[in-house]
Amino acid sequence: MKISIVKADTLDVMYEAAGVCRNSANASKALEHSIKAGHDSILEHASVTFKISGISRATSHQLVRHRIASYAQQSQRHTKLEFASAQWFIRPPTIEQEEYEEHMREVILYYLRLLAAGVEPEDARYIIPNACKTELVMTINLRSLINLFEHRICSRTQWEFRDLAIEMYKSVKSFYPVVFKYHKFPNCFHCFEKCLNPVKGV
Known about the structure:
Blueprint: E1 2-8, H1 12-21, H2 27-36, E2 47-56, H3 57-63, E3 69-73, H4 97-116, H5 121-124, E4 133-141, H6 142-152, H7 159-172, H8 177-180
Antiparallel strand pairs: 1-2, 2-4, 3-4
Helix pairs in contact: 1-2
C-alpha cells in the first residue's frame, strides 16, 4: 500500500471563509474558533487529492461509498493486467499463504490464456477476484475526509480499509495542524457501538 498527496489546498481558503462568517479581520483566530466550535462547514472549502496504490478492489469498493469525493481508478476494461506473480493480490492474514498463492497463480494463468485466445480485457476481467491490487486518485474535501477517518479508523472497520485510513491520516495531518488539533482519531465519542478492541490513537 502506498499513499501520496498529489495536491492539498492551503489554509488560505478556509481563513477567508472563516473571516467572512465571523466578520473578523483576524482570520486565523476566526478559523480556529470555528473548528473548535464544531462549525465544520468551513472545512468543505479545502480539498486534498490522494494517489492510492496497492490496495485491493475489495477495499476500493468500500472507499467509493464515501460519496462526497471524486475518484479516477485504474481500468480493468481498457488495461491488460500484466500479472507477474501472486503478489498482484492482497492476501488477508487469516488465509494460509501457500494455498492462496497457488490459487492466484491459477487465476493469472487462466486470465492470460483468455487474452491469448482473443478475449477482450473487458470480458477476461470477470475472472479476476476482488483481491486484485488497484490504483486510484481521490479528491475529497476536509469535512468529508474527517468523516471518513471517524468511521474507518476504528477496530470495527475491515482491516485493510482501516490501515488505508490510518495511512491517509498520517500523510495529511501535518498539512492542517489547526484542523487536526481538534479532530483526533479514533473518535469513539461519535461511535454508537462499543469497540471490544479499540484502535490506539494515531
